[in-house]
Amino acid sequence: MNIIPEKNYLTYPKGLKSWLFTLDHKRIGLMYLFAIMFFFLVGGIFALMIRLELFSPGKDIVSADTYNQLFTLHGAIMIFLFIIPSIPASLGNLILPLMLGAKDVAFPRLNLASWYIYVFGAMFAVYSMIAGAADTGWTFYTPYSIETNTAVISLTTGAFILGFSSIFTGLNFLVTIHKLRAPGMTWFKMPLFVWGLYATSIIQVVATPVLGITLLLLILERVAGIGIFNPALGGDPVLFQHFFWFYSHPAVYIMILPGMAIISELISVHSHKKIFGYKVIAYSSLAIAFISFLVWGHHMFVSGQSELAGMIFSFLTFFVGVPSGIKVFNWVATLYKGAVRFTTPMLYTFAFLILFSIGGLTGIFLGALSVDVHLHDTYFVVAHFHYTMMGGTVIAFFAGLHHWWPKIWGRMYNERIAKITAVLVFIGFNLTFIPQFIMGAHGMPRRYYDYLPQFQGMHELSTYGAYLLGFAFTIMAVYLIHSIFKGKPAGNNPWGGLTLEWQTTSPPDPHNFHEVPVWTHGPYDYDKIKVTPDLEKELETA
Amino acid sequence: MSKKDHQEHVIPLMVYLAVGAALLVLTVITVAVSYVNLGPFNLVVAIGIATFKAMLVALFFMHLLYDNKLFMAVFLSGLMFLGVFIILTMFDTMKRDMIYDEVAKPINPKAVIYQESAPPTDQTGGQQ
Amino acid sequence: MDVATDRPAYLAEHFTDAEQQKESAKLGMWVFLLTEILLFGGLFCAYAIYRAWYPDMFYNAHKHLDVVLGAVNTVVLILSSVTVALAIHAIQHNKRKQSIIFLTVTLLFAATFLVIKYFEYSHKIHLGMLPGKFYTYTGIEGTNPHIFFTIYFTMTGLHGLHVLAGMIVIGWVLIRTIKGHFNSEYYTPVENAGLYWHLVDMIWIYLFPLLYLVG
Ligand SMILES: [Cu+2]
Q1: Which residues contact A417 (CB under 8 A, 6 or more apart)?
Q2: How far is CA C187 from the centre of its chain?
Q3: Nearest CA in chain B to A370
Q4: Are C147 and C48 contacting, i.e. CB atoms less than 8 angstroms apart?
Q5: Contact: A183, B89; criterion CB under 8 Å
């Protein structure tokens, strides 16, 4: 019978103060997890309101202006407050030092500071909702963002502050990975989750400062009329788009690389087979991080940038598909002849493989200059974006959450309900966004309040899908929270993983390990080592 | 995990003073040169001297020459990404007026849109 | 958790030895400097683009900046870089008094820089050479001269803020040196403050010729 250790990071030390001033990466990760889930809920509610409004043409529940604010807030919250910090700051903080065999991240105080900065930035974003929410879209394009009377400044200030939180997390992880690996853990013996977070951190520290200066200039533009992005003052609004996308294209890899990192981890553990092409997956993460800085102009094909730039960016964009494709092939090859277990994390992993492939392949359409001219600013883009970001990152996040949940809390959720929910999520997701691909290809523009009656059927389907998704996430919240209190003790190694986080107790000791672990084997040496997952041992004894 | 490879390098005092003197001399040179009209080469010389000065600061004052080479890699990668940012952006801003002749030519002159008295096509060509 | 007895007080619990802690702190600082480079990078990019668009206007406008004051400030910052390097050198040799003196001199140089900058700014503001819509000066020929001053004020302004931040950091290190927290065994914060200060100097090394000399 599995037991939960009496003294673990959740129970010791006690008291609210011990949480608010904690330097323990696991507690900070957990605080991040609660914060981002809260904003996932808020952003999700906005999404459901948008879908309800779009159920039929014309006005359904809100005015056109409110609608503009809704999609702006949905985008800004989901991106800056949920997806970007989601995997690195929550699961990364919780698991990364454990995987490395370290006692903590390199700079624990900076880590706590990044959480408080996150909360501080979030307060600005929340304040902007009260103070007349921005209606610019999450991209804040000039000159409209200079002219509109809505609360652009507080929302951009929020995003500016959140950038620091993101930089500090990235900086911390980079140093931790370089300097705090367990004895014996060379670069190519690190788990692939660590590799993914390493590549993510590089993008975070390189790209985020440019977002900082961009938003700072935009704020100055609004406050002091400095003219740099304002065509009325001789400035160039397209320059704003360059600045913005120099960050925001790499930022989509801040979002997806950790998702890919989780999938690389899970696909090996849940099929008990050595990962296929370890080095190639590791290198492809770095390649993605690098190439992601060369392609931002594919968001600007119809902005008025030069044809030469358009062609260069389109050409370069195709390169980014190569390492992503390499990863997908390696994941599928890992499954071949593996002892695949259809656990909840694995179901989400399968969902990821399908949805991310669709998202990635439609990205090639949009990266092609001539095709994009037609698809630009249609629902095709919206669907593509959601297939990669939600079908990719969010699904991978839930895969990881279900994978490490028993490690975080020491308890198991109800697997049967969880599996049914996973299927519901998959169906709901596709029902929401496949119609959007079709509408987009037929020319339905994005961000429109009203639309032609011919699109109504598709919009209805999409709305049904969105509510199915909302329903599925509600069930997930219920069974996960239930499991915290009533779940069966999961054991130290419920899935039979070989990485270091499974060698400590569940939940882990406040100091992670009782003695410094020594890393003697590879992270996926299932060909050499035989492990039986604790959950399966349970079944055998029962 | 950390390797005790090299003990802390203590750089001789003279190095700091010499580098400081060199930086001051270079400042004088760069100001002097700016009063000579070299056309576009004024900019090249100014950036060249500034880069040399920055190199001195990085290598000696910031110990890049002696420290872990990883720090050098971090520093240089920053400059590289900055270069990417500026150069790729300028591929747009410097070439905005570039329009290909071919764009204005119909691919298929027999196509319906070019028949009868179709309205004159947009002479800006492919400008979106 | 068994506590090893030979651990010095400055060594945080999650590091195995002082070397690991030092290397981590310095790597962290360098990564932070990388973010600073990219933060200023946006402004350098804007400079490059607008200068390429309006070379004549930039040439005319830059003549209205005071080369002498700019050059003096360059010298001041270079000297401050030397003194901060000497402060680190002193603490490496356990010469705490010397280190305190050099850090104080660095602070004074930094303050001098800001004072000179203040006079330059007030002169510009007085003449109406202001960024964007506040630009009222009429003596500069060329397209959009206010854009030059937008770039001048944002670049030097952001740099000035970094000088201010650097003074706070050096002041904090100075206080800790006075309190005797540092010696030849442990002086990483002094070194990191120095790294930051050198970067601030390095950015000015570029700003001075680009704005004052060639426009
Ligand atoms: Cu992109």
Answers
A1: A475, A479
A2: 21
A3: B126
A4: no
A5: no
Contact assignment for B81 to A293 by CB distance below 8 Å: yes
- Cβ of B78 within 8 Å of Cβ of C33? The answer is yes
Q: Do A179 and C147 touch (CB under 8 A)?
A: no
Q: What is the pLDDT of residue A514?
A: 83
Who contacts A8 (Cβ-Cβ below 8 Å, separation ≥6)? A410, A505, A507, A508, A509, A510
pLDDT tens profile A315-368: 999 999 999 999 999 999 999 999 999 999 999 999 999 999 999 999 999 999
Residue B32 falls inside a structural domain: yes
Pairing type for strands A488-489 and A411-412 reads antiparallel
Q: Are A383 and A361 in contact (CB under 8 A)?
A: no
DSSP conformation letters of A389-436: IIIIIIHHHHHHHHHHHHHHHSEE--HHHHHHHHHHHHHHHHHHHHHH
Predicted confidence (pLDDT) per residue in C80-104, tens digit:
999 999 999 999 999 999 999 999 9
pTM of the entire predicted model:
0.93
In 3D, which of C190, C9, C1 has the Cα closest to residue C84?
C190
Residue B16 resides in a domain: yes
Task: Mutation target for A interface from C16, C20, C35: give the one with most A CBs within 10 A.
Answer: C35
Mean pLDDT for A308-317 is 93
Number of domains in chain B: 1
Residue B30's domain comprises 2-68
Contacts of A477 (CB under 8 A, 6+ apart): none
**Using CA atoms, how far apart are residues B67 and A336, in angstroms rounded to an integer?**
47
Which CATH class for the C18-213 domain?
A: mainly alpha
For A138-158, how does the pLDDT look when each residue is reduced to its tens digit (9 = 90+)?
999 989 999 998 999 999 999
ipTM of the complex: 0.93
Q: Which domains does chain A have, with CATH numbers?
A: 22-541 (1.20.210.10)
Instruction: Pick the residue from chain C with its C-alpha nearest to A166.
Output: C35
Domain ranges of chain C: 18-213
A250 C-alpha to center of ligand 1: Å? 7
Q: For chain B, what percent of residues have pLDDT higher than 90? A: 53
User: Residue B86 falls within a domain, yes or no?
Assistant: no
| CB neighbourhood size of C9 (10 A) | 6
Return the pLDDT at A542. Answer: 58
Mutation for testing the B interface, residue in C43, C202, C208 having most B CBs under 10 Å: C202
Instruction: For chain A, give the mean pLDDT.
Output: 93
Q: Is residue B5 over pLDDT 70?
A: no
